[in-house]
Structures are given as C-alpha cells and as structure tokens.
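User: Hey, quick favor. My workstation is busy. Could you predict this chain's structure for me?
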Amino acid sequence: MNKDDEKRVAARLARIMAMLCVRDTQLETLHAGLGPITRAGDYSDVFVVDADGRRIPWSEVSRFDDAEMRQLMQEIVNRLYTFHLEANDPKLQATIERWMGVAMKWDEPSLDHRMLSPGARK
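Assistant: No problem, here it is.
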C-alpha cells in the first residue's frame, strides 16, 4: 500500500473510531446543559461563582471532576478495545457502515505532533 492509500485508510479509521468510540459516551452527558453566553466572544466576560463565593474565570473552571474523567476514559478505552477485538463482527460492521457517511463529513484529520514527542502530554 502506498503512503497516500495508508493516509486515506487511517483517516477513515480515525473518523469512525472517534464516532463509535468517543461520541455518544459519558462525553455527551458532560456536554449537555446550558452553555454560558459571552458578549466578548472569548468567554473572558464569563465567571462562575462557587459555594464559597469565589468568582472563577470561565477559562479556569474545571468542567468535570476526576471521577467523571475516569468514567469517561474507561468508557472510551472499553469501546476502543471492543472496536479492535470485534472489528470483523457483522453487527459491528453494520454499525460502522451506518455511521461512516456521517463521520466522513468531518474535517480531514492531521498528525498530532505532540503525540510524537517523547514525554509530551496535553
């Protein structure tokens, strides 16, 4: 397989894995709810006031706690594991085919060079 074909296959796989393994998880629950309104456009005018009366800038607010993060990551790991082990299962293949059209409308993926740097995380 040439490099262009590899990239095409990797892009399709990345999109469908994101669709099936990340979307419709606990992430959707965390995303639900009211979003704040910003007149500045960058949320610099949005603050959260906590139970102790602290006024926290939106950019510094943790949107979910450690337990929610752990639950989300476990669900994604389980789905990725299932995807890899059961990729040839006819039921999973049917699901892949059903969602591929939607996933292929997403932006073209690109390399995340931070993953390629030793010790890089964020």
